[in-house]
């Protein structure tokens, strides 16, 4: 019931602020961009390399067209340039300069263009959206991936009734290597599923990201929490069907990090606590080393880690020939480039990354690149941890409640660091996007819901501009 008063100090009743159409469109564009990055392999399998390249160019141009006017409208001098993730951007700059000494210059320029496009997308999302909006955008993009994965698996299993090749190519005569399929149709026969992203491990990783984002949003008391539970249940089913050993390890680490962060929040003396965490971590690693054969057997892996040891050895042999500045940037490796075509084969297919991000960086940009990447990830990890465990404070009030959103960066970082031990995803595509996005957002907006960075930026509309409430 509305209450009116003639008191001269009271403000006149007003409707609640609404988002402008322009900002709603920015949010929608951000969701589309996030989907195309997280589901890049789905786009690739749908429209091929040329189509995915054209889409990437269009989305990048659109992101620049939105981001640059917004920065100009709020005056470039006020933009937090010093808060940019300079270590990661320095790595990107070194990647471009490596064209001068690269053994595969064409692959360097091609993959650097991909890196630059993803960087622009990350900066757009970090600048234009608040923390709450970023979580919702990630949630929506991941929901689309989960929904499409279920739909395409059902279609292949029940309607098509045979495996599906990329770009909907007809099956050739004779035996086809299962690794060539987009979807194998294993939804009901007990085999691993690939989903719309076309890879079981990638699908499992998307499911884990989704569970983290859904859990954080559920804790923030968002609307439609029942539907979040439904989506989380779907994510669990798809994750189990994808059956990725690396993701199972990531889940254990995420749970441990979550427990540690919650304990740190209620502990006043953190020195002994961190010492205890270190002891537990060392014991855990030592136990894993001693029982590695049993653990690998439990996860369905052989002692060669599904051929990774041979891959690492081959990469090391090439990387050590140029240890300082590397052989030239290429993330991922371009399989049709003569330098990579047939170099390392797995099931007869050319491998397109080193299956370890640190070894991959050493191959491409040498020790200098490893140092820059280590600084970037160390800074992100450090900031994400204290972003999660330090109580929000900007005045004398030291008892403000924590926001569940503050746990999102540290949990995502934990997943990416584990992923980087067995895959190279953290240095390209969605891994690189999260590195830039989280690093910049936490530096520019260290308090959720507080500060200029948590207000919607000015969006230019020709000669005039409006400030979104």
Helix and strand arrangement:
Blueprint: H1 21-38, H2 40-73, H3 86-97, H4 105-128, H5 131-160, H6 200-219, H7 225-242, H8 245-265, H9 270-290, H10 292-298, H11 308-319, E1 345-346, E2 349-350, H12 357-389, H13 408-422, H14 429-444, E3 458-461, E4 464-467
Antiparallel strand pairs: 1-2, 3-4
Helix pairs in contact: 1-2, 1-4, 1-5, 2-4, 3-12, 4-14, 5-6, 5-7, 6-7, 6-8, 6-13, 8-13, 11-12, 12-13, 12-14, 13-14
What's the assembly state of these chains?
single chain
* Helical proportion, percent range: 55-70%
Distance between the termini: 25 Å
Rounded mean pLDDT is: 87
Rg (CA only): 24 Å
Could you state the order of secondary-structure elements as H and E? HHHHHHHHHHHEEHHHEE
Strand content: under 5%
Record field, number of beta strands = 4
Alpha-beta content class? mainly alpha
Low-confidence stretches: 457-469
Count of DSSP helices? 14
* Major pleated sheet: 2 strands, antiparallel
Give the strand order of the largest sheet, numbering strands 1, 2, ... along the chain: 1-2
The gross shape turns out to be: globular
